[in-house]
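Support request, please re-run this one:
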Amino acid sequence: MNYAQDYSTLLKLFVRLVETQAGRSIGKNEEWLNDAQVLSVKLFRHLASMQILAAGAQLRGEAGTAAFIDHASIKVICRAALETYLVFFYVYGQDDESLCKFRHTTWRLAGLCDRQKFHVTTQEHQDVLSEESSLISQLQAEVQASPWMNKFTPKQQREILKGNWRPAADWNDLGADAGFHPKYFKNVYSYLCSYSHASYLSALQVGQAKSRDTQEQLSQTILGIGVVLMAHFAFSYSGLFGAAKAALHADQESARIAEKWCIGHSDMATHYGS
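Re-run finished. Output below.
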């Protein structure tokens, strides 16, 4: 199946939805929403890169011209896109705003804790780590004071304070929480990870996909995942921002395509089981 047309439609819709927030002033208590925009940009660039790679490349050399579609890189980028959407939904896709803020704080804390582990060699970078060390202490205090911490075991609470933003969930759990059928998500995610980690399966398929037609087929399958991701994002993002919801409803054709590809647990139950 060729997903090119729907992919382009949903990618343009993605831009229109995110641009509804352009120039909007952020209130003091809404600063945590800034990272929703940054995650959206990250996700968009992954999806756009997948589309560009799927168009194929040509390299001229002394022996002639080599034409190919780098389906392996598309899969590696798709994994990054999938994880980015899952983080977006985990943090911003919840009905309870206090839970969203708590998860944003733990996610932010985790990232800053990760950077503290890096070896730095310049005074400038040492100063950054020193400043962030103070911020980490502040975020840890905020997390400890949150009622949401009571939802975790003492061990999980310690992990959160050390920089684990999802101590009670792995990527498969996040996929199920975001509305994907568990078996579908596990199949897709495991396959994409096999390319990121250079498993034998990835080498086998790269070696077997000698023709451009085969490479295109393998690429289109992954663009299909991208279409589903964009459809889910359209509804998650529009649920977060009222102006985006209005823009989605105003574009009836794009909304119809998004609805078609917003495939969830119930849509896949016949194929994968309940």
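The chain has a mean pLDDT of 95. The first helix runs from residue 4 to 19.
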